[in-house]
Design brief:
InterPro entries: HET. This protein is α+β, with helices and mostly antiparallel strands and about 675 residues long. Helices cover about 20% and strands about 20% of the residues. It folds into 3 domains: about 110 residues, no CATH class; about 220 residues, no CATH class; about 290 residues, no CATH class. It is globular, with a radius of gyration of 29 Å.
Length: about 675
């Protein structure tokens, strides 16, 4: 047999169930990062080898959960990578399929413990209930060793922790009632989805009764609470943490004043929590927290494990991020900041509990090894991102976030900005840039250029903001550094007019000393070149907004929650042709029938007759699009917006790109340099 091994002719039965490829993997002596080739995918699919079977299952699981098919249909080579310090499993080593970072094959016990696998390893049966002592060890270790995860100490004043907030309400799990606190306390926050279940709500009427000790146990109040809240209360009792914050129970749901005052502090509520319970299981508030009650746990949904060699146990598991991808929890708007801004999180799935902080990740079904928890920071929260990012990253950080957020669902469309308020505040504080309708004013020209497929109008918000539209948005990356683009490709001086009619600059560096210093080389609006019109007779020198408009469009009574914009730019008039009824994409045509651009039409499926018109549409130029290396076309190209006027205020109806020929090809009355009032 030794001769057979040396010549590479080891059969599966001769190698303890491993094929000749997998028998070469030193499962007991893996180090660093190593790639192992398993041969053709057809061979792996047909193999009876135990490790090949795990690899096949990992590929299938990736495809089922994420739609990715790794190698299997193309008949190519199959490689697996050993990663010595895999952050997805708390620093434990794990195998991954090359090109697939969502599913791993990891040891279900350490090699030294393999003869007698501990109860925390991946075993055929799941513990009936969560091991509370183990959760305490996770939390205590993090609190004692991870400075970056620490919450504010209790001796810090309430005013410092929650500036501007009078008090916070909590469920007191000892006194079984609602309490109001005006000093910092150690508490747990709950993040969950309400769904269609009739969730219990705090109201002005029941608040006095709920604040009496023992109220949760009176008159059937406990039975009115959904299972998720009941289980969260039970978990706090077991962990000996007295206070629990739950939105439906701690905010007066029929008091607009109370809700409005608290929404601005949602980021701090989750950030300062001792940890946040993430109810990632189920479809509503009655799904519960599996593992808290005996008998409510399910078998491992993605269980697949085997003993590869005597005493060596391996199992397949999706990453936490992939598990969240398939959860309804991840589709809701409010959960983004609740999940992203919490320092420590305890995730409840129907078959496993996972703990994650900024430096550790622990799976209930995988062994703990605290010596590996200090390797490096896990990029697991928006909180850590917003504390470490720098000026040049605001474009890629915030627009990525918006592209993910705008595909989430919300029950009330009026929550479009509220559900992101904490994150918006974080970015604003980090960059020292105020926001206007959810757009960073320091890079306002860029963020106004969002596009989407079949966007539908969301009333109550300005059309120039992503908040004014329902549907996933996207940004077209220019490949040009943001600051250079702002200096060399933009010309608009943006003004804003509030509902009282007061006019001011969107960005006035002289009036905002909190803006970035000059040594940060972030000029923004401080250097604006004039618009160079190819038609010399058109005067483009006027850029200052008119104080007293002739029409009354921007007087008090504006229908928008935020100010409207006022600015000067060039307007051209073009026809839309070839409008695709499913994608709402069309081409822009000039006076001679020449194609001069293209655009995505917004609100095409709304109740409107705007696009039925035979008359040319007004298109305003917003900024010059950088020319790529491969772009050999002559002349400039411009980002442009299709607008519709209503009672003196324009609204966005599409966004696209036009060639410089569009200026000369404009239908009457354009091209014209004009003042735009955009809501």
């Amino acid at each position: 047999m030794e001769l057979a091994r040396s010549r590479g002719f080891v059969t599966e039965s001769q190698a303890d169930g491993l094929c000749s490829f997998c028998a070469k993997i030193p499962f007991r002596e893996l180090h660093g990062r190593t790639r192992f080739n398993l041969g053709l995918s057809s061979r792996v699919l047909a193999s009876r080898c135990k490790f090949c079977r795990l690899v096949c299952y990992a590929s299938t699981l990736s495809q089922q959960m994420n739609g990715k098919n790794i190698h299997w249909s193309g008949g190519g080579e199959v490689d697996v990578d050993w990663i010595q310090e895999c952050s997805s499993f708390g620093g434990h080593g794990a195998f991954s399929l090359t090109g697939c970072w969502e599913v791993f094959i990891a040891f279900s016990s350490t090699i030294h413990e393999a003869e007698n696998p501990p109860s925390c390893s991946l075993l055929p049966s799941l513990p009936a209930q969560l091991d509370i002592q183990r959760v305490l060890r996770w939390l205590d270790y993090c609190a004692s060793n991870h400075d970056g995860c620490a919450v504010l100490p209790e001796h810090i004043s309430f005013a410092h922790t929650f500036p501007g907030l009078d008090q916070l309400r909590f469920i007191d799990v000892v006194e079984n009632c609602l309490v109001e606190k005006r000093e910092p306390v150690k508490y747990v926050a709950l993040s969950y989805i309400w769904g269609s279940f009739p969730n219990f709500r705090l109201t002005r009427a029941n608040k006095p009764e709920l604040m009496k000790p023992g109220a949760l146990l009176w008159r059937g109040v406990w039975s009115l609470l959904p299972r998720t809240i009941q289980d969260a209360v039970s978990l706090c009792r077991k962990l000996n943490i007295r206070f629990l914050w739950v939105d439906s129970f701690c905010l007066i749901q029929n008091s607009p004043t109370d809700l409005e005052a608290s929404i601005g502090f949602m980021d701090q509520i989750y950030e300062h929590a001792w940890f946040t319970i993430i109810a990632a299981h189920g479809h509503d508030a009655n799904a519960g927290l599996p593992g808290i009650r005996e008998g409510d746990r399910h078998e491992m949904e993605y269980r697949h494990h085997d003993m590869i060699e005597p005493g060596v146990f391996l199992g397949v598991s999706p990453t936490l991020n992939l598990r969240l991808t398939g959860a309804l929890y991840q589709t809701r708007a409010w959960t983004l900041q609740e999940h992203g801004l919490s320092r420590r999180r305890l995730y409840f799935f129907k078959d496993e509990v996972i703990f994650r902080c900024r430096r550790a990740q622990c799976h209930e079904n995988w062994p703990d090894d605290s010596t590996r928890w200090e390797n490096k920071e896990i990029p697991s929260s928006l909180l850590s991102d917003t504390q470490t990012i720098h000026m040049g990253n605001i474009q890629c950080r915030y627009d990525d976030l918006l592209q993910g957020y705008t595909q989430r669902q919300m029950t009330s469309e009026s929550d479009a900005l509220h559900a992101l308020a904490g994150i918006i505040k974080r970015f604003s504080q980090c960059y020292r840039f105020p926001m206007l309708a959810g757009l960073p004013i320091g890079t306002f020209d860029w963020f106004i250029l969002f596009q989407g497929e079949r966007l539908r109008r969301r009333r109550g918000f300005p059309s120039f903001s992503w908040a004014g539209w329902r549907g996933k948005i996207r940004f077209s990356y220019s490949g040009v550094e943001t600051n250079d683009w702002l200096r060399g490709h933009t010309w608009i001086i943006w003004y804003k007019r509030d509902s009282a009619g007061a006019l001011s600059l969107v960005w006035d560096p002289h009036e905002n000393p909190s803006f970035p210093d000059e040594d940060m080389n972030f000029k923004g609006y401080r250097e604006r070149r004039p618009f160079l019109c190819p038609i010399p007779s058109i005067d483009t020198s006027q850029t200052i907004a008119t104080q007293d408009l002739v029409h009354g469009s921007s007087t008090p009574g504006s229908p928008y929650a935020d100010p409207i914009l006022q600015f000067w730019t060039l307007a051209v008039y073009l026809n839309i042709r070839g409008l695709h009824v499913f994608t709402a994409e069309g081409i822009l045509v000039g006076m001679d029938g020449v194609t001069v651009g293209n655009a995505n039409i917004d609100g095409f499926e709304d109740v409107t007759t705007f696009f039925d018109s035979d008359h040319p549409f007004e298109v305003i130029l917003l900024s010059q699009r950088p020319r790529s290396i491969l772009d050999r076309r002559a002349g400039h190209r411009y980002y442009a917006m299709i607008i519709e006027w209503n009672n003196g205020v324009a609204e966005r109806r599409g966004l696209g790109v036009v060639e410089s020929d569009a200026i000369c090809q404009s239908f009457p009355p354009g091209p014209v340099w004009k003042e735009i009032v955009l809501g």
